[in-house]
Every structure is written in C-alpha cells, then in structure tokens.
Amino acid sequence: MMANDMNSTFANEESLAYQQLPITFPVRFWIYLISNTLSLPCCFFILFHLLFNRNLRETLSNHIIIVILLLVLIMECTYFPLAIHYYRLGGNWHVQRPFSQLWTYSLFGFFPTQTVVFAWCTIQRHILIFHSQLLATKANRILVHYIPSSNLSICRYSIDGNWCVSALFFPQFNSLKDRYHRSSDHSNSNYNHFNSCPFLSFPKAASSPETIDAMEETKKADHSSSINRHSFWHFSISMGSFRVMVFVWFTIKFIRRSSKLHAVL
C-alpha cells in the first residue's frame, strides 16, 4: 500500500513538473539549437572587434562588456551543448556522479556571476556618465574601474562555487544533493540522471521497494539535519548582506570624497 502511494506521489510530481514547463523536449531542443547556433558566431564576432581593435579595447566602457561576453561564451561552449544533448535524448541521459557534481558547481557559479556583473555594468555606466571625474587619474581608474570589475567576477563565482561545494559534499546538506542528483534507480549509485540543473530537474517515479526504503531513509536524514541547513542559510544570507553593505558604503564614501577633492581643485 505504501509502495503504491509513493509511486503515485512521484508520478504526480513528474506530471506537475511537466505542467510547470509545458514545452516538450523536441521543441526545447530546436529552440536551444537554433538560438545557440546564431548566438555563438555573434559572440565571437563582437569579441574579436573588442579585443583586437585598440581603440575599442582601451575604452573603459567596453571592459565590462568584454567580461560579460567571455562569461557568455563559456556558457555557450559548455552548458548549452550539454543541455541540447539532454533535450535531444528526451531527458533520458545518465551520467556519472563526479561529472554531475562538477557540472552543478560550474552551473551555480556562472549564472549568478553573469547577473552580478551585468548589475555592476549599469552602476559603472552611471559613474562614467555622471561622475567621470572619478576616472581622471590612473589611481582612480584602478580603484573604481579595474578592481571592482575583476573582484566581482572572481569573488561572485567563488561565493556561489563554495555554496555549491558545501551543498554537494557536506553530509548535512544531503537533501539538496539528492534533489539535484536523483536517479530513477538507487541501486546504481555511480550514475545519475542528468538533472543537476534546476531547469532540467524532472523527478522519476519509484519502481521498487528498495527505492522506497532509500527514500524513507533520506527523508529521516533530511529531518534530522534541518537545523544545520537553516543555520547554513542564515549564515550565507548574513555574510552576503554584510558584503553588499560594505561595498555600497565604500563606494558612496569614495564618491563623496572624490567629489569634494575635485571641487577643491
């Protein structure tokens, strides 16, 4: 009786996932394939001109654009081909656990990094237009332009990568690891369904009593480690908020002092 209930539960979860993403795998395959095929040459073309044209390369406003394009190029050469292959197989792609963990690590690093770097790009545009005096000297350009651009790109990826490593390899976060590394057959622990990406995660229906027992044990472990997970989330949110406040405070103080110095001169 319990086995039938578990099977029906996972079948309902699977149908719910498809309801949330109603686009079929073949349609998604062609959308990704066509868009990535058109986007990749455009990215190479723009990067070629920005990197090999000296005037464009030395323009400050183009530096952050180059960083964004490099991040996009990495994703187009790594993530999207794998996603296209996944959709081509109709969601039935089994990979080894180390590959899945490495894939999740890179995925959770690049997507947030692109968002944060793009947000900094808008702030930098504001500085270049309304506070161009802050970039008048070489020291100011290093402090206001080069250091934030490089630190945001590297540190943001490191923060998300460290979070992902904690979620994947520390035992108190097994629920997150099982969520992104769920297999249709728990007896074969060396292989996992390609669902490390949250956009590609589709639960599979349970098919054996051993699978149900493993899921029950996972639920018990998840319940016992809930306090550790909550502490981890609170600590991550606190540290992230502290970094943002320090960065905003430092930027405002620097702009004010530079404006006063420029007015005196």
Automatic annotation (TrEMBL):
Taxonomic lineage: Eukaryota, Metazoa, Spiralia, Gnathifera, Rotifera
Protein name, UniProt field: Uncharacterized protein
Keywords linked to the UniProt accession: Membrane, Transmembrane, Transmembrane helix
Membrane-spanning intervals of the chain: 29-52, 64-82, 102-123, 232-252
Highest taxon, organism lineage: Eukaryota
Keyword Membrane: yes
